[in-house]
Design a protein that fits this description.
Blueprint (H helix, E strand, L loop, with lengths): L6 H7 L5 H10 L5 H13 L5 H35 L2 H6 L5 H9 L1 H5 L2 H12 L3 H26 L3 H8 L4 H40 L2 H10 L3 H31 L4 H25 L16 H10 L2 H29 L3 H16 L2 H9 L6 H26 L3 H8 L4 H10 L3 H26 L2 H11 L3 H31 L1
Helix pairs in contact: 1-22, 2-19, 3-13, 4-9, 4-11, 4-12, 4-13, 4-14, 8-9, 8-11, 9-11, 10-11, 11-12, 11-13, 11-14, 12-13, 15-24, 16-19, 16-22, 16-23, 17-19, 18-19, 18-22, 19-22, 20-21, 22-23, 22-24, 23-24
């Protein structure tokens, strides 16, 4: 039987070569006590602390993280749907409104979604002070812009024939939109909304690592004090919550895909989102009753001359080079490692092991991985690349597993019956049909990694993230605004490039 061209599977596996220079650099930089530290860290995984007082404190911190995630997720979903509707030129035409405000809104939303939630959190921390709602707002702002983009794209991509038929029949524009668009859009909202809830939980944990409260703060303190048993107690609790959430969302997705969601199901889902937001907000207030009110501390905006002076003082070539190199290395590891690992050992028992590994590396926030590596290594760009690559590799590994579970194994079995090896049967019989879609999502994930370079840059001493931290620490607001603008521009260019790659691979 003729084998398909190996272009797509090869493009998915070859990026894993980025792991070689990264591992060489990291292993070469390990000092004498590094191996001992890592052995202590790994042994603590099977012997976490079970101290009742510690577990009580960790459970309370986990509740704070979950409450922040629920509140931020609910607000971002509601705001994102509203903004996505007003950014849709098709809806504006349907309502007989001018389309130029929709065009302006669509372009304006590019800025908040291009800035990572951590940057939003650090900025809001400076102007609003330490308050739990700072973390909620940091999640809400970029997530709402992301939801708005997805919602608007899906609205404009729908077949307008049903909507036009209802309008020609004399139905009111609002009622016609709800009737014609709710089935397909309901499925999109429920599927993508579940994914954003997972992201919100990770973001709330990440913000806690940088001092905004919740379980992330406790995890960071345990790691900095080398209390690995306490660290693993928190990680296992977070893992239990993540697995429980993943199971619930998987069941929900399967239910939502059985049939298109009608208006009733969509309304029930939106009601559930609002209830979740109210629950998270109330829960946060009960857990932190003494947090006080949000106080605007003020922030003087610099003039144009000082912005130009700050821009001239920064080493742009080095900063952009380090940021892009960090992105390329991390994206190569994230995209290439899961299919390479499955290709090397395609047997089913090893697939179970890989699933556990993907879940573990997805669980640990990249800043904690960087801090752990810095206990045994000197700061290098390779450390940040490894942390980002492994974390996002866990996300890509789960996606690949789900994609392969939906793929029929008939072609793989047929190739095996004809004498092909297990690896070739897996590569060409099972993986190849899914490789274009996997690469398309890999391009999107590379866009996400570009945003996340600021996370490891703040700790690892490289790229725009490190310079941003230095400027924030010295209250050099001119440099902060210039760096955020540059970061947003690079992110938007990366977003455009990933869109082009996805369109090409999805059409191949």
């Amino acid at each position: 039987m003729a084998l398909p061209r190996p272009s797509a599977p090869a493009l998915a596996v070859l990026p894993a070569l980025a792991l070689l220079p990264v591992l060489i650099t990291v292993l070469a930089g390990i000092h004498a006590g590094g191996v001992e530290i890592w052995m202590a860290f790994l042994s603590a995984a099977v012997h976490p602390s079970l101290d009742p007082l510690l577990l009580k404190a960790l459970l309370r911190a986990l509740q704070v993280t979950l409450a922040m995630a629920l509140a931020g997720w609910s607000l971002s979903l509601v705001l994102g749907v509203l903004l996505g509707c007003f950014a849709s030129e098709r809806l504006m035409q349907t309502w007989r409104w001018p389309t130029w405000p929709a065009w302006i809104l669509r372009r304006s939303l590019a800025l908040p979604r291009s800035v990572h939630e951590l940057i939003w959190g650090l900025l809001l921390l400076q102007v609003l002070g330490l308050h739990p709602w700072v973390a909620v707002a940091a999640i809400t702002i970029p997530y709402a812009a992301l939801v708005a983009r997805v919602w608007r794209d899906q609205l404009d991509a729908l077949d307008p024939s049903r909507l036009q038929a209802l309008l020609q029949g004399g139905a009111p524009p609002l009622a016609a939109c709800c009737t014609a668009l709710s089935p397909a859009m309901g499925t999109v909202l429920m599927s993508y909304g579940g994914y954003r809830l997972e992201c919100a939980l990770r973001s709330a944990t990440l913000l806690g690592v940088f001092g905004l409260g919740g379980l992330g703060t406790d995890l960071q303190l345990s790691l900095q004090s080398l209390q690995f048993r306490e660290l693993w107690s928190g990680l296992w609790l977070l893992g239990l919550l993540s697995v429980s959430l993943e199971i619930l969302l998987t069941l929900w997705r399967r239910q939502s895909h059985k049939a298109q969601a009608g208006q009733r199901r969509l309304c029930l889902f939106l009601a559930g989102v609002i209830v979740a937001g109210i629950t998270g907000s109330t829960w946060l207030h009960v857990l932190l009753p003494d947090s006080g009110s949000v106080v605007w501390q003020g922030l003087a905006l610099p003039d144009w001359g000082r912005l130009m002076l700050a821009a001239a003082e920064l080493p742009w070539l080095r900063l952009i080079y380090e940021t892009l190199l960090l992105t390329v290395l991390a994206a190569g590891i994230a995209v290439g490692l899961p299919p390479l690992a499955m290709l090397l050992v395609p047997s089913r028992p090893w697939q179970v092991v890989f699933n556990a590994v993907w879940a573990l590396v997805r669980l640990i926030p990249p800043p904690l991985t960087v801090l752990l590596l810095l206990l045994s290594n000197r700061p290098t760009l390779a450390i940040g690349a490894l942390a980002l690559g492994l974390h996002n590799g866990g996300v890509m590994g789960r996606l690949l597993r789900e994609e392969l579970e939906q793929q029929s194994a008939d072609q793989q079995q047929a190739m095996g019956a004809l004498g092909a090896s297990a690896r070739l049967s897996w590569l060409y019989g099972l993986f190849t049909p899914r490789s274009p879609g996997y690469l398309a999502y890999g391009a999107y994930r590379s866009d996400v990694i570009l945003r996340e370079t600021v996370v490891v840059g703040l700790i690892g001493g490289s790229g725009l993230g490190w310079q941003l931290l230095e400027s924030l620490s010295s209250f050099h607001w001119d440099a902060v605004l210039v760096l955020i603008g540059a970061y947003a521009l690079i992110t938007l260019l990366g977003e455009w490039l990933s869109d082009q790659c996805r369109n090409r691979w999805l059409q191949s």
